[in-house]
Amino acid sequence: MGQRQVTGSDEDPRVAELRTAVSRLRRELAAHPAEFPDRGIAEDELAALAAMALSGAPEVPRLRRSLLLVAGAIGSVSALAMGLAAVRSAVELFGEPGGSRY
Prior knowledge:
- The chain is mainly α.
- The protein is 62% helix and 0% strand.
- The protein has helices at residues 13-31, 39-55, 60-74, 81-92.
- Helix 1 runs antiparallel to helix 4 (81-92) and helix 3 packs antiparallel against helix 4 (81-92).
């Protein structure tokens, strides 16, 4: 199954979804009052994901690496679980590295 582009736009819908999910999780993390040891790692990797989404052609292995680092950094913060799941779903839209998802 191929991805269709948004009507009237040349943007890949997977990239748009990634950008939206990353932006939302970044806002949720910024608003989260508790400090935790790996917060800086999560912030840095979310910034990297945002930059990849802006480039329009993210590299799947790099997306997955950043996702793993973010998950490891904030995985135990239950308040951020839904945002993290949305980023994971957006990354999964890109399929497996070097292959097709279907």
